[in-house]
Amino acid sequence: MSSAIVDAAVAGRLAIRALGRRLRGEIEPAPDRDAFRRDLDQALAALPAGLVSQVEWIDLPAQEPPWHDSGIELSPGDELTWLALGRVYASKPLDIWVGPKNQIWARIGKDGRVFSSTRDSHTLVAERAGRLQFGNYFPNDWADVTGSTLQDDAVYESVEGGTLIAAIRWTDSALAGLDALRRIADPQKLVSGEIERFSAGTTTPEGWHYLWHLGDAEIFRSRETPDGGHAIDCSVQGDVGILQRKADLPLTPQTRINWRWQIRSLPGLMREDSLPSHDYLSIAVEFDDGRDITYYWSRSLAPGTGYNCPLPNWKHREFHVVVRSGEKGLGVWHDESRNLHADYAHYIGTPPARVVRVWLIANSIFARQLGRCSFASIQLSDGERTIEVL
Questions:
Q1: What 3 state SS string does 73-142 have?
Q2: Can you tell me whether residue 40 is helix, strand or coil?
Q3: Residue 9 is part of which domain span?
Q4: Could you read off the pLDDT of 318-365 as tens digits, one per residue?
Q5: pTM for the predicted model, two decimal places
Q6: Are residue 363 and residue 259 in the same domain, yes or no?
Q7: N or C: which end of the chain has fewer CB within 10 A?
């Protein structure tokens, strides 16, 4: 079945679902940006004198390509918080949208490294001098770490909506300022959420890192298993993240990946090989040719099904292979093993020379349903050498 027919069929089902939810009043209305600005302005005005050095409001339409000058000049050591509210719609009829956490990125100076937040708010301590800039991410991607875009800016014409950002440069301590602000008001719970995020620090499992051009997240966390082993838990809803770890090994006919996983709930509503329904949980292996194979548990596609990623920015890079399907076996630990050389030859073509990384992937951007799983005992082996990834 062609991808166009699959996309049309999936879009039709999603439209019917969205219409039913709309008629039942189950679709959450878009946040009130005017009320947010009014309430936050009132709270900021009530703060003790001397806490806030500068406040700038940035109204960022979804169609505006990066980059937008915030009007704030930062010096090294300056502490700044942004609080953001809004939605960027890929499709209003299908109720597919992203919030500020997945849309808003920033940089300091035109040559500064881009960064985002794990929530709809962020606090930074400036490491360099320069103008703070904000940029829309979706539906584009970054071509480099300074924020050049991968696709033509015309792609932004396909989305609608926007984000309202309050950028607050503190005179001294951001945490002290946020705490004082919370005592007065907490619009949209963003202030308390930012205090929690900032105080908690990183939740990224040790030895792993998030793929830089998707941004950091709070999706994956380490834990100890009852038998004293190590596992990584995943909980994702309305978010996306790719956790990576270096794992360099020759790709030979004997090279395998072994792992254990427990999928407790699937984030997807239907088949995942369509762009508007591409929510899934997986483990992936990246090769030295830039390609990766990602093994996942499908909602309905048969085990053994393989396809190129339906997302435009990923279709020439990522290949999906279904390992398990359906609800049978959810909540139970399963042992898996795949021959990477054989899978590459079967699904993609002539195998490259080496494995370079292992990924854990969680995507719940489209349906925004809760996906939960755990990974353990991840191991790469070529018959002569074994790498204990987790």
A1: EECCCCEEEEEEEEEEEEECCCCEEECHHHHEEEEECCCCCCECCCCCEEEEECCCCEEEEEEECCCCCE
A2: helix
A3: 1-27
A4: 999 999 999 999 999 999 999 999 999 999 999 999 999 999 999 999
A5: 0.93
A6: yes
A7: N
